[in-house]
Structure formats: C-alpha cells, structure tokens
Specification:
- This protein is α+β, with helices and mostly antiparallel strands.
- Helices cover 34% and strands 17% of the residues.
- Helix 1 runs antiparallel to helix 2, helix 1 packs parallel to helix 4 and helix 2 runs antiparallel to helix 4.
C-alpha cells in the first residue's frame, strides 16, 4: 500500500492511496481518491495511472513505459483517449466571472449544450470533441495529465519526470 505525498507539503494525503490486493484470481491494483477514479481526468491519464502503479507494485520498468507513453502521445496515437468530460452545473449564460474550459467548449457547439461536455484542449484552446477544428495540444496533455499522474510514482523512485521522458535539457557539468 502506498500513500502518495500531498502535492504541496509533506506527508501522505488522507483518502488517497494505492494498494495491491492479492486474490485467488490474481493481483488487482486498487486506487482510492486518485485521478484514475475521477471522471474529469482523461481516459489516457486514468489508464496510465493504473499501469504505473501496477508496474511499481510488480517491480517492472516504469521509466521505459513513461517514455513510450509520452512518445506515442506526442505522435497522435492516443487521440481517442484525450477527451475531457465535464458536467455543466448551470446554464451557459450564468458563467460570467470565469470561463472554465468545458464552458468555453460548450459555447462553440452548434445547438443546445449537453449536460456533459466532451472536449479536447487544442492549440487554440478548448474545443468540443464533436467539432474540433484545431490540432490537439499534446504538450498540454503531457504536462497536465501524464506529469500529474506520474510524479507521485516517480517521487517514490527518486526520479524526475523531465529526465525520465527525455525532456531534460539541463547541461551536465559534472
């Protein structure tokens, strides 16, 4: 069982843990309070988080998995798994102070907005999944989705995300 650290502080977060349950049918990774069980994260991030903890618990290579995942993501191989889903809690007109991404995407839809908005983050901002005109912003997904689920696992191993995926551009002096 693992209790990942709180993002901005020390110690484990309450109601947020990952564990490996051994049964007669095999091992099962159980995640509670993690991104993998939240609907507002992309299917790719939810699957990748389960895979990362499974690899960690079974002592399999996490770094090669992450490098391959990011390379395939940037290559456009996971586009169908990059859709965000978020519920509109009120009418579109009532969002005046701020405009969350799902509201911006819903406003671009033709016709009435659905209760659950499905959208991508593109190079031109959020766009509805059904009517995407711009290219997907893959770096958004690398930094906001993959990094977010990978850092707790990498922290346990004493590794840095940018180094693991090959984006570390810092010059080595020694």
């Amino acid at each position: 069982m693992l209790l990942p650290e709180v993002k901005h502080g020390g110690g484990g977060a309450r109601k947020r843990y990952a564990g490996l349950v051994r049964t007669n049918d095999g091992d099962e990774v159980v995640l509670t309070g993690m991104e993998a069980v939240r609907r507002d994260w992309t299917p790719l991030a939810r699957r990748a988080q389960r895979d990362l903890f499974d690899r960690l618990f079974h002592d399999r290579d996490v770094t090669a998995y992450l490098r391959e995942l990011v390379a395939k993501l940037r290559n456009g191989e996971f586009d169908d798994q990059l859709v965000y889903r978020k519920t509109l809690r009120r009418r579109l007109e009532s969002y005046t102070a701020t405009t969350p991404p799902h509201v911006a995407a819903a406003r671009k839809l033709r016709g009435p907005a659905p209760r659950v908005v499905r959208y991508f983050i593109t190079v031109n901002g959020p766009e509805p999944a059904a009517h995407r005109d711009s290219p997907i912003d893959y770096e958004h997904y690398v930094q906001r989705q993959v990094r977010g689920i990978a850092e707790p696992v990498l922290g346990i191993l004493g590794l840095e995300f940018d180094q693991v995926i090959g984006d570390d551009t810092q010059l080595r002096l020694f």
